[in-house]
Amino acid sequence: MNSLIMQRRVAVALLLALTVGGFLILFDGHNPFAAYKVLFFESFLNYWGFSNTLVKASPMLLAGLAVIIPMRAGVFNIGGEGQIYIGGLFGAVFALAAPDLPAALGVPLIFLAAAIGGALWAAIPAYLKAYRGTNEVIVTLLMNFVAIHIVSYAVAGPLLAEGAPYPYSNEVAEAYRLPIVMPRSDAHAGFVFGLSMALILYFWLRFTPSGFQLDLVGRNARAAAYAGVDQKKTIIRAMLIGGSLAGMAGAIEVIGLKYRLFHLFSDGYGYDGIVVAFLAALNPIVAPLTALFLAGLSAGAGTMQRAIGVDSSVIEVVEGLVVVFVAAALVAPRNSSKPILKNLLIGGLFGRQKHSKKKEA
Amino acid sequence: MVDLVLLGDVLAGTARLGTPIAFAALGGVIAERSGLYNIGLEGQILAGALGAAAGSFATGSALIGLGCGVICGLLSGLFLGYMSIRLRINQLVGGIALNLLLAGLTAFLSRQIFGAQAGGARVEGFTQIRIPLLSDIPVLGPSLFSQDPLFYLLIGIAVLAWYWLMKSHKGLDLRAVGENPKAADLAGVPVFRLQYLAISISGALAALAGAHLVLSQVYVFAEGMSAGKGFIALAAIILGRWSPIGAVCAALFFGFCDAAQFKLQFSSPEVPYQLFLILPYIASLIALVILGAKASAPASVGLPYDREHR
Question: Which of A125, A211, A244, B7 suits B132 as a labelling partner, its CA being 20 to 30 A distant?
Fold first, then answer.
């Protein structure tokens, strides 16, 4: 499908979701325009608000890329959440075990440890998918819960800080903290890191043979096999990359924001990543924008509630609707310029979603 | 003697904690047997819970609450069916979207209905029914035969679902759709109608899980009260090998792990209770790997059926 048509459809789907959300705000007895104005103004145009948006956007962006890369190879990584947890655990354990390294060495090693953790966690579903044909969705989903419980065991047991009233670890060394990009706020360099990852991955997919192989396997496995692409290896490579990206998101939460490993430290960022990926129509270069948008929604929801009194759960509804509408829009017939509304209502009767999920030929 | 009391407690806990998982898992089995993934169980549990709480809150009758919950579940199932069958959205994406949507919507509506006060409004629920004679059996009696009515309903529905799916004509048609929709279609089986039926029943069963949480366990609606039960149910489907009875047994095993975990936290704090929380997931993963999913999963589950596609 033409990528321009695709992007336009996503935009219309977004507007629809916001419109339905607007009716809910109206139902709640408030002016939807005023509410949205506060929401977007506070999360993008206000200094403190934007710093909050950036803080949320960094794990969302990496988690989104962790969905995009495997999905381009035809593998659905729902395991971002678990990979974030294991990555955070590995990063934190490394940081706590080696507190005296110079930052220039220590921080990259923490990222590496987290990436290895996430990749290891993703390797299990990847291997099962490639060699046993086991459904990766179920495996990654189940492994998320295992990862969360492992971290909550770790911070309540071996890593528990002395005298901690709540399960959390000791603080990591001050030298390892990520630099702050907006003075006096919490906004750390995590988003910049994610942005560079998005660029690298975009060029990798677009201009390198191995990146092209990934796309080929996702788009047409049989053609890929004819072309001599090793499908199993490609799937595993895609998942390992995805897992390491999510793992690094975990490290960013630890050394960028909380400086400790906490029980339940990721607030569903792995699942937000799925929304980010779909909104970006699986294009890494668009993911930073969609991550910012989604982060802005969720950071602004609280402000909106405090300022106007609109219930912040409206925004959760909008997020769900965004996924529904965007998914419906992307299923719509290929090479067709039918209006999106019609497609949404009548359904994409002639398109095979397996193919039309991918963008650009 | 102390151990017997403990065992009885854990058994009672098993039935109580396993029931919602079992309802949702039954729903999942029926949907997957018709060729549709229902990843939206988690959200549908919330829909059922909110419907049950609202119905019971408005009328003061737990039974009407139950009905309202089931209707909410049916509607959410129909919506998922519309996304999966008509729009042919990727079923996993559709389910995840439904979860997000219902998590937000139930939170929003509950604040509209019950007001914003913490704890929510207490609603009328079911009380335990002691079955004469059977409830006098030591250990087993107090734990398994003095449960709330929804536990007995679960047993009834499980047997009924097994009979319907495995022994009736309609069930055979439904399973045929899940295995090979094209062949079923050519044989004159109304593929889409059966899929809509299955996904609606699936939603209603997930809603019963939510109704059990509200009407038999805590008597109040809380945001996000499904707490991952819909996902555990997905595991129970696999562990139960896509059979209604198997899924219920798997769900009760998960309930047992949960009950044991609660007991352990108090009785022996030196054993990490997370071990028991992880156990259900590990068991399902091992089942998935060792027994192999391909052997018993419906062949066409997750693939949208397109009449005009060869």
Answer: B7
> Tokens for B74?
């049916």
A chain contacts of residue B278, beta-carbon cutoff 8 Å: 145-146, 149-150
Hey, of B39, B86, B90, B93, which one would you mutate to test binding to chain A, going by the most A CBs within 10 A of its CB?
Answer: B93
Chain B positions touching A135 (Cβ under 8 A) are: 288, 293, 297, 302
- Cα separation, A230 vs A216, in Å, equals 11
Taking the Cβ of residue B36 and every Cβ of chain A, the question of whether any pair is shorter than 8 Å is answered with no
Please tell me which residue of chain A has the smallest CA distance to B107: A313
Contact B281 A146 (CB under 8 A): yes
B27 domain-assigned: yes
Question: In B123-180, which residue ranges form alpha helices assigned H by DSSP?
Answer: 140-144, 149-167, 169-179
Residue-range definition of the domain harbouring residue B213: 18-296
pLDDT of residue A172: 92
- Of B90, B231, B293, nearest to A134 by CB-CB distance is B293
Tokens at residue A356, please?
């039309």
Interface of B with A in 199-238 (CB under 8 A): 223, 228, 231-232, 234-235, 238
Which residue, among A18, A89, A135, would best test binding to B if mutated, counting the most B CBs under 10 Å from its CB? A135
Distances from the Cα of B254 to the Cα of B94, B107, B147, B284, angstroms: 26, 27, 18, 10
Interface probe with A: pick from B96, B254, B308, most Cβ of A within 10 Å: B96
Q: Do A323 and B93 touch (CB under 8 A)?
A: yes
> Which DSSP string corresponds to A299-316?
HHHHHHHHHH---THHHH
In this structure, is residue B3 part of a structural domain? no
B306: in domain: no
- Which of these, A186, A193, A178, A183, lies nearest to A256 by C-alpha position? A178
Render each residue's pLDDT in chain A as its tens digit; 361 residues. Answer: 466 777 788 888 889 999 999 999 998 889 999 999 999 998 999 999 999 999 999 999 999 999 999 999 989 999 999 999 999 999 999 999 999 999 999 999 999 999 999 999 999 999 999 998 888 888 998 899 999 999 999 998 888 888 888 889 999 998 999 999 998 888 999 999 999 999 999 999 999 999 999 988 888 888 888 888 899 999 999 999 999 999 999 999 999 999 999 988 998 899 889 889 988 888 999 999 999 999 999 888 888 888 888 888 888 888 888 888 888 887 755 444 444 434 333 333 333 333 333 333 3
On whether any CB of chain A is under 8 Å from the CB of B40, the answer is no
Residue B265 has φ and ψ, to the nearest 5°, of -55, -35
Domain count along chain B: 1
* Residue B26 near residue B176, CB atoms below 8 Å: no
Q: Is B6 a domain residue? A: no
Q: How many CB atoms lie within 10 A of CB A211?
A: 17
